# Entry
Amino acid sequence: MTTLARPFRMSLPAISRHLRVLENARLIQRARRGREHLIRPRATGLEDARKWIAQCAAGWEAAFDKFELLLKSTQEKEKGR
# Structure
């Protein structure tokens, strides 16, 4: 982990916490060889994250579309007064 932490201005415990979050999210895979931790990205984890983000984005787009319709309707009512 020391090699991984070197470019960052963070303590080793902070790096370890970040890696644990990424591991719990299944975005990285960790293997131990003695005292050495071998860390690699998980392509399938990234694909899962991409799909989740796309679902969230679709939900927000639908909500914004409804909001836009509401605003237009309100503006038309205001013009009609």
